[in-house]
Amino acid sequence: MKTRTLGPFTVSAIGLGAMPMSMGRNTQPSEEQAITTVHAALDAGITFVDTADIYAPSWDTMGHNEAIVANALGSWSGDAGSIVVGTKGGITRGEGESWGRDGSEAYLRAALEKSLRILGRDKIDLYQWHRPDRNIRYAEGVEALAKFRDEGLITAIGISNANVEEIAVAVDVLGEGNLASVQNQFSPRYRSSADELEYCAERGIAFLPWSPLGGTGADSKTLGENYPAIAEVAQARGVSPQQVTLAWELAQAPVVIPIPGASRPESITDSVRAADLDLSADELTLLNDSWGPQTPYAD
């Protein structure tokens, strides 16, 4: 498995997005299937797993996905200590599925402490502010994460769903080299984070595309149909359209670490192979020139 840098860690070039094991589909996989999927990812060489406190089937089961990750790591036959786990906090879910955002230090601290308990850890490898809270200054949320790091509760700091201005604020608060990652939506369908990707590439900040295949819906399964250039390259290489898409993302910059979601072992073991798929300059040009209108990003 090829590797890339994520803050102080060296991780696999492809990570595992664990969200589909807990939400995003009409029917979630059984716990046994979910754990088998995580094990398949780890056995294939993945060393970074992404989760979040809100990844759960319902508002009153928050932490569901983190528990799956913890159980999978605890039952894996390999060295679980070599696996970097990233989780997120800052989005709220309440009774009746009322969603909101809270970037206050008090809320983030409570969320972090709960994540620590569920994951069974004394320290979170990568803790990410999930979405901006427009009711506070952006710097306040980042300052809270810096305080948690200084207290030894987290190792590395990341932010998610952030624009260039917000990334710059985080860098200013933390200092150059201390923002480990930015996790934004990015795929052939959602390319509106290209500016953020470029900003991260210039500064050596890991860029983690979420929904790198277009989401958990039909788009990820119909990449070849929706994008003929992807199908053309996939057929010529004898690989899946999903591998071509992830390889295209990896080729954007050395800081890119896609985290495709999976709820079946077959899905993630196919995605892992993208790390060894080096696209030619001609193939990259073909793909870059073929993208049509993109879906606007909704903050």
Fold and architecture overview:
This protein has 299 residues and is α/β, with parallel strands linked by helices. The strands form three sheets. A seven-stranded parallel sheet has the order 3-4-5-8-9-10-11, with helices on one face. Strands 1-2 form a two-stranded antiparallel sheet. It has a two-stranded antiparallel ribbon with strand order 6-7. It is globular and about 55 Å long. The protein has a single domain, classed as Alpha-Beta Barrel (TIM Barrel). Helix content is 39%, strand content 17%.
SSE order and pairing:
Layout (H helix, E strand, L loop, with lengths): L2 E4 L2 E4 L3 E2 L13 H13 L4 E3 L13 H12 L8 E6 L1 E4 L3 E4 L3 H15 L4 E6 L8 H13 L3 E7 L3 H11 L4 E7 L8 H10 L2 E5 L7 H4 L1 H4 L1 H10 L3 H10 L14 H8 L8 H8 L11
Parallel strand pairs: 3-4, 4-5, 5-8, 8-9, 9-10, 10-11
Antiparallel strand pairs: 1-2, 6-7
Keywords: Oxidoreductase
Pfam family, one: Aldo_ket_red
Organism: Naumannella cuiyingiana
In short:
By secondary structure, the protein is α/β, with parallel strands linked by helices. It has helices at residues 31-43, 64-75, 105-119, 138-150, 164-174, 194-203, 218-221, 223-226, 228-237, 241-250, 265-272, 281-288, and strands at 3-6, 9-12, 16-17, 48-50, 84-89, 91-94, 98-101, 124-129, 154-160, 179-185, 206-210. 39% of the residues lie in helices and 17% in strands.
